[in-house]
């Protein structure tokens, strides 16, 4: 009976010991992982590099001979930009710890980083901006006097803020004099099979919209940006359809509003586009010949003209009636009363119409309370 009791006690002790080993071993296993995290910011200063003005993909050598236990200074990093620091080809097991110069931790890598596999460290991170420290150690946080080559690469720059986006499908409209407009994905990659457009109106009469592109990366020959003068996709094309990575364009509307359209096919996506919106004074009138009327804009600051050339009011002369109808209405509303007058680009390209009866473009009578001139305009052939 004693023998059985003793045997039972021994077996119970083994079970308890096994139980506690099962509980504590995983916990103990966490301790080395914790200890193997970033090494101290404190280190011997050695090399430095200035990355101000770098372009995406640019790579530089911080030093060809950094010892374990030394740190390098990286000057003028861009906030939000992604950098990669690597020790590929190192002769021993390296560690990289990235800090701000105030020793706030940023990033860490020991093995199998983004640039090189195995025990040579490489680390990729989004910079908080400003100057940074790159601390290199031999595993585990120790020193080594073997020369190691350390490089840095600018992987990406932060995308622009997208105040407005062109919808993936359908259309929208905005009235704006500033801000950035992007494809529907904003700062990310656009989607497949999208087709949408945005109409941008200037906030005031006699203004044109200008788009200045800061990014333009689409699938060449398949994903297109097209910019039209006026409202919608039926107006004259000012730019495009263009794809790929062209020289960054600046496009200005003629008639006031501008329409930007983006469409992609069913495969392969890229970062898309971003353009800054601004407003400029509407361009001077451009009336072509009778056979080729050309674009129309009737806001043209100038002196008094004869009735053969146009109407003058408030220091402006008006040489035509185009898509900026509201410009004429706003500028002349308190001075002139128009009636029986048709305003449209289509009408003007064919004839000038006064009242219900069309007359030749070369001759038109404006009928109103304060206006009663004949405009016998000679053709501009």
Query: Into which percentage range does the β-strand content fall?
Result: 35-45%
Radius of gyration: 35 Å
Structural class by secondary-structure content = mainly beta
Q: Tell me about the largest β-sheet.
A: 5 strands, mixed
> Secondary-structure element sequence?
HEEEEEEEEEEEEEEEEEEEEEEHHEEEE
Strand order of the largest sheet: 1-3-8-5-6
Question: What is the distance, rounded to the nearest whole angstrom, between the alpha carbons of the first and last residues?
Answer: 127 Å
Number of strands: 26
Unreliable parts:
1-7, 23-36, 285-298, 300-381
Concise overview:
With 381 residues, the chain is mainly beta. Helices cover 13% and strands 39% of the residues. The protein is elongated.
